[in-house]
Amino acid sequence: xxxxxxxxxxxxxxxxxxxxxxxxxxxxxxxxxxxxxxxxxxxxxxxxxxxxxxxxxxxxxxxxxxxxxxxxxxxxxxxxxxxxxxxxxxxxxxxxxxxxxxxxxxxxxxxxxxxxxxxxxxxxxxxxxxxxxxxxxxxxxxxxxxxxxxxxxxxxxxxxxxxxxxxxxxxxxxxxxxxxxxxxxxxxxxxxxxxxxxxxxxxxxxxxxxxxxxxxxxxxxxxxxxxxxxxxxxxxxxxxxxxxxxxxxxxxxxxxxxxxxxxxxxxxxxxxxxxxxxxxxxxxxxxxxxxxxxxxxxxxxxxxxxxxxxxxxxxxxxxxxxxxxxxxxxxxxxxxxxxxxxxxxxxxxxxxxxxxxxxxxxxxxxxxxxxxxxxxxxxxxxxxxxxxxxxxxxxxxxxxxxxxxxxxxxxxxxxxxxxxxxxxxxxxxxxxxx
Length: 434
Prior knowledge:
CATH architecture: Orthogonal Bundle
Structural class: mainly alpha
Helix content: over 70%
Radius of gyration: 21 Å
CATH class: Mainly Alpha
Number of domains: 1
């Protein structure tokens, strides 16, 4: 049947089969983990070069440095405002509901896994964070796949080409454009494995943590998911409505990517396809190429909600006094520690550990309360981050008058009719491809 050729349907089938296997044979399901790991590794392999090509080609459309500065300024303002709103929302709901009240977990032993994470996060400093944006060498950034470093190099390269007056028929631009086409074609090959990757990752998660974990969600997990849904539907919904867009249409636009994220608990798996899809859906490639990769480091709405809820929950659960002014102070620190890094599963937990090491107001052993349910939290975090960054691209594209409404409507109509080609199958129309 035609419907089974749709990628999101195949991924959904993979997730359903994973749940069945996890419940029926948890030991076998746990052994499926390499399938998910391999799929994520294949996609991460493409991240650095795709970001480089997309940012460089996008910035060559920027006529001058003032335009680039304006774009960066608008993006950073939007990122910081939305991150702050997300954190405030997280603190409000956790203080109202108080999911950790009554646990009295005052004598927690420090979990070995938590100790390892906390040790790695203990070296976090504000100065170190900003210095980490600068790679040791150009090659080092690509070898390690650090998104923020690759973005830094890409912006410098794109700005240099733009200021240097390189023509549209430049050999170097043709090479980069053709390289991008090849990368997207490789991406289309890898995406055929998406149902298998989602199956492996989800099966392993259920096999290890048990079906009961999925059925009987802890109060804090349920609170986090409800808060995140509220943030997407109400907060992001209001933002998109003011821009003349529908949050439900944007979610439908990226439904395939969201299903991949649901299966893998990693936002990185969606980035390569999002770059291509958002350009095809009417956003100018200069906006997509800059805002989307930057958002993966600076516009982490889900991570912001997660960290706000988590620190207050730990304070409640461990009976640690945590006044309003202390929460305001932690909020200021969270605005820094929530930034940077990648959106792989567990990334928010590492940032939470870094925050607690920095604040030193809450007992570090409280992280053990969240360690076992991190997978459920990470999935919601990644989903919220992807939606938040999708919205950011459209809002800033509208702000910059770089959004083609007719192209968006045509793409949505094609998607509804099932006529959208797989990612990388065809070159993008209306952009420089040599």
